[in-house]
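Q: What does the predicted 3D structure of Carbohydrate kinase look like?
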Amino acid sequence: MSAAVKSYAAVDLGASSGRVMVGRVGPDSLELAEAHRFPNRPVRVPEGLRWDVLGLYAGVLDGLRAAGQVDSVGIDSWAVDYGLLDADGALLGNPVHYRDPRTEGVAEKVWATVPAEELYAATGLQYAPFNTLYQLTAARSTAQLGEARRLLLMPDLLTYWLTGEQGTELTNASTTQLIDPRTRDWAYDVASRLGIDLGLFAPLRQPGDPAGLLRGEVLEETGLAGPVPVTAVGSHDTASAVAAVPASGERFAYICTGTWSLAGLELDAPVLTEESRAANFTNELGLDGTVRYLRNIMGLWLLQESVRAWGDPDLGALLLEASKAPALRSVVDAGDAAFLAPGRMPERIAEACRLSGQPVPETPAEVTRCILDSLALAHRKAVQDAQRLAGQAVDVVHVVGGGTRNALLCQLTADACGLPVVAGPTEAAALGNVLVQARSHGLVGDMTGMRRLLVNTQPLTRYEPRGGTERWRAAQARLAGD
């Protein structure tokens, strides 16, 4: 292997599993291999739904051991959740899961102090009941928050355990609803009015900043020879995934697919209009001064939960049957908060169809087709709305993440949007993580250079739209009650 090629460990934590990937990067080469994959199973305890963060950390250590010697480590994860540390730096209890019901009704209390319109104008974040701002408001009177001296978002917490260094990476911080996307700094006025102590947060870090060295105990446990640096990456997994969109031009939309679908545009500045707020678009921060202007859609969570309810049948066979089911027979709002909680997903989808006067899907194939048609319809609406609200037209839709394995969803998305879909890479978040580390070592250049390397090295599949968009327009109108 050429001396110019370096190896990077990308710790990529999703809502249902974690993985440690090893990226080998040279000036004209990019290879990614899985070193270790482990489950991420939340645990319901008497006080609510919690993350098994110790199990996650053990998985990270096992992954680094399996990865072998690397030149750097980077961590990305899902957004909004955090751990609290006491004055000695010890974790105060298991981090709360964003699906825990503690934030029910909290938004209205926040809006009584900072109206929703003002909150959006200041932070640019779409309403989601689990945003960190609402979580902190819900936790205000708890003993844990009273004892806390530091708050670390999930990837920053794991980085702290690996290195002993504390920081708050900016792309993930932008999901807290406590960052001003214009200044790329804290929204001090919002925090002050809501009584949130920004002193709990460690100093902000940028993607590419050094985040410390692996501690001696970590080196001993993983068998790595030090020093091994940890590099701050786009630690919100969507920020890393968008960095790995293999776009060769600027007129593109992206859909980061997995448990969630995050559909939108990459912009130079936030869109903070009241119309944008009403459309529930968010302005999260990306690499190199960019803004991820996107809408959160429930995503493949709907299918994951349904498959679980059916006893985990063969997914390939299920998708084949779904492809033969009647198109757009029944659709649901894939962004509806009614689908947020786990459990009984097929019954809840059937009930939503019944209540809206549509045919009720009965077989697993019919439910699956309803889900995928509904997701494609939600993708269509998000891409259309983003273009209109940002005043930026697109020629192609890039689908990255786990949904790239679902050829039916990719084709339906192309059909619904009336635009070509380029699917890949599947492990976009890990690749974006690796590329930011490689860039910090001078192996790749700016975002254009990163994306050129992806286009030249990653397998991509192109789906052309079929059949016109009239039936999708009709289904969209039906769902809206028009």
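A (community wiki): The structure tokens above were generated from the sequence. Residues 247-424+445-481 form a domain with the Nucleotidyltransferase; domain 5 fold (CATH 3.30.420.40). The chain has two domains: 6-236, 247-424+445-481.
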